[in-house]
Amino acid sequence: MTQPLKDILVLDFSTLLPGPMATLMLSEAGAEVVKFERPVTGEDARHTDPKIDGESIGFAVLNHGKRSVAIDLKSNDALDALRPLLEKADVLVEQFRPGVMERLGLGYEAVRTINPQIVYCSITGYGQTGPKATAAGHDLNYVGDAGVLSLSRGPDDRPTMPFGLMADIGGGTYPAVVNILLALMARQKTGQGVHLDIAMSEGAFAFAYWAHAEGVIAGQEIASADSRLTGRLARYRLYSAADGRQIAVGALEEKFWQAFCDVIGQPQDLRDDWVDPVACAAEVARRLGRQPSTHWGPLLMAADCCCSVVKTPAESAADPHFTARGVFERKLDISGREVPALPLPIAPQFRTGAGSVGRAATLGEDNARFGVDPRKTE
Predict the structure, then answer these.
(1) Residue 377 has pLDDT above 60, yes or no
(2) What is the second-level CATH architecture of the domain 9-206+328-376?
(3) Helices (H) and strands (E) in the chain — how many of each?
C-alpha cells in the first residue's frame, strides 16, 4: 500500500519532545520531514544522556528518518535561504513561544503570503493567546494547571510524580498530528491552509474526563486519591506482592472483582469496597503480600479478571504478546548499533517495512540537498 503521506513535505522547527514526536509520526506515514537546527551545536536534545558512542539515544529515537538542515534563523539571509522550501511545503511545525517566529520573519501571516496552502502548526504550553500565553513551563506545569496532578498527588511528604508525559505527548503530539491530518483533508476541499494553535495544557484535560464530569459539571469536591479511578476503591489499585513487585488490580466490574476475590480468598464480609473501602483494601493488601508476584501472576491470568503483575519497560519489550504482534520489530540505527525503534500508533499498513532500519541525520547533513549554505548561517 502507498504510504498516505507520500509527497507531503514537512518543515520541522520544533525541539525536545512534542513537535519532534509529531513529525516522527508524519514521517512514519511517508512524509518527508526536514528538521531545522542551529549551527554547530544543533538542538539541545542531541546532547542528552544516555548515549551510544556519543550519539544521544533520546534524540535518535525521536528524529530518525528526518533530514537535518543547520541554519541560524536569526541571520539576515535565513528567510531567503528557506523561501524555496516554504514555497513547496505542505506542513510547518514550530514550538517556540508565541511571537518568536514572527520576530524571525517566519510567523504564520508571513509564511502564508509565500504559501497560502501551508498547514502551520504551533505547539505551545498555553496557546497563542490568553494571559499565560508567553509563560514558561514544562509537562509538570501543564498537567498541574489542567487539574490532573491534584487527583492523585500522594502523601504530602512524598508527592507522586506523573508516570508519563501526558501534556507533552497527549496534549501536544497527538492533537498536533490529528489536527494536521484534518487540516490536510480540509485543504483538499478548500485549497487553503490554516494556522493550528495547539496548547499542551488544554490537551491534558481529556486525560481526566471523569474529573471534568464530577468536579466541573457536577461541582463535586474531588480529594486526592478519593475517586474510583485514583485509589478510593479496593478494586482499582496497586498492591505489593511479597517480593516487592506490584500487582495492578483493575477489577472495576463486579464479575471481575468477585473473580479476583476468589483467587486471593477475600472473605465475603470484606468484598463490598463501597461500604468500607479502607478495611477491604487493607485485607487485599495483606493477602497479596503473603506470596510473591510469581505466585499471583499465573493465577490472575487464568482468572481473566483485569489484574496483572506490573512490568518494567524491559520486561514489556520482551513480552510474548508484544513480540507476536511485532510491536518492537521496527529497528533504529544508533552509531552502527541496531536497536528497537519507539513503537508509535501508526497502522502497520501505512508504514515502511517493519524491519526497516532508520537513523537520525547528522547535524546539517542535508544542507546541500536543499541549497542552504551553512557558512552563511553561522
Answers:
(1) no
(2) 3-Layer(aba) Sandwich (3.40)
(3) 14, 14
